[in-house]
Design a protein that fits this description.
8 helices, seven-stranded mixed β-sheet, Rossmann fold, six-stranded mixed β-sheet, Dihydrodipicolinate Reductase, domain 2, alpha/beta, globular
Length: 341
């Protein structure tokens, strides 16, 4: 006997990835509902490469009663309106938006990092999926933290335009085309031209000069991994369609060598170490697209602190950063709490 699963926001980038990954990982569902706004109701969308398709239902009229799990991938406004409604109907919500992440009654989960935290989901019947940049970073940090205790992390992200949705991807494509033919490349989605450029600004600015994206990395890392870890982040949008990259500098309480770190990471769940000190001995965003892993490369010691490492971390943000992590949470929920006979 399988689960009854709802995907909310099924027509968006992340929603489509969730449908695909449910099929790829053979998630045990008996019934699957694809839900979106009234604009998309009635459309038929493919479930990955399976050859199956599903008809989109209108969320305004959808009844969550009797459904087991709802994976929300439609943004904070939709989650604010419908997530609690679904949870009260007995359908456990796994939410990809930022709305519930810092709610003390809502567990924020990366299954490779803090699976035990999911046990607190019953307080609201909602589980939060972290920010895409946070998810891949903590997968890489967790095994190192277990070994030598992390004191401080300084991170610079290089985030793809798919993090801003389909509009962001369309803008990079159209601006690149316009520049090649000599037309002006006017920004619509982003604050400045993204084609052939980088923008050190993601989400709104806060009073201290940081952005909300940077704030998310700080507070989510503390909630998931360890509240004692100090985090400093600079988040940058780059002209890459899919795949987030991160340059991470780590200061530890205890000594750890680059060789030890490589050995640990090589054996860690969710991590793929590709670290040869030669041309092409590292992973770039284009190579991680469509993969489940968080790739780590360029592990090296930082001589400016007593015990420090620097590394390069790359992952498909639509997968591990969103859809895959959501499905992994659903799998974890099933194993620990929702076992079907």
């Amino acid at each position: 006997m399988g689960y009854k699963v709802v995907v909310v926001g099924a027509t968006g980038n992340v929603g489509r990835e969730i449908l695909s990954i449910l099929e790829e990982r053979k998630f045990p569902y008996d019934e699957l509902a694809a839900v979106a706004s009234s604009r998309s109701a009635g459309e038929r969308i493919d479930i990955g490469d399976s050859g199956k398709e599903v008809k989109v239902r209108n969320i305004e009229h959808f009844d969550f009663e009797g459904w087991d799990i709802a994976l929300f991938a439609a943004g904070s406004a939709v989650s604010k309106q419908y997530a609690d409604k679904a949870a009260r109907a007995g359908c456990t919500v796994i939410d990809n938006s930022s709305l519930f992440r810092m709610d003390p009654d809502v567990p924020l989960i990366v299954p490779e990092v803090n699976p035990e935290a999911i046990d607190g989901y019953r307080a609201r019947n909602i589980i939060a999926n972290p920010n895409c940049s946070t998810a891949q970073m903590v997968v890489a940090l967790k095994p190192l933290h277990d070994k030598a205790r992390i004191k401080r992390v300084v991170i610079a992200t290089y985030q793809s335009v798919s993090g801003a949705g389909k509009g962001g991807m369309d803008e990079l494509f159209s601006q690149s085309r316009d520049i090649f033919v000599g037309d002006p490349a006017e920004p619509q989605v982003f604050t400045k031209q993204i084609a052939f450029n980088v923008i050190p600004h993601i989400d709104d600015f806060l009073e201290d000069g940081s952005t909300k994206e940077e704030w998310k990395l700080v507070v989510e890392t503390k909630k998931i991994l360890d509240p004692k870890i100090k985090v400093s982040a600079t988040c940058v949008r780059v002209p890459v369609f899919v795949g987030h990259s991160e340059a991470i500098n780590i200061e530890f309480e205890e000594e750890i060598s680059a060789e030890e770190a490589q050995k640990i990471l090589r054996e860690s769940p969710g991590v793929m170490l590709v670290d040869k000190r030669q041309d092409e001995g590292y992973v770039t965003p284009i190579e991680c697209v469509g993969d489940y892993a968080t790739f780590v490369s360029r592990v090296r010691e930082d001589p400016t602190v007593d015990s420090g490492l620097s590394l390069w971390c790359v992952s498909d943000n639509l997968r591990k950063g969103a859809a895959l992590n959501a499905v992994q949470i659903a799998e974890l929920l099933g194993r620990r709490h929702l076992q079907k006979a």
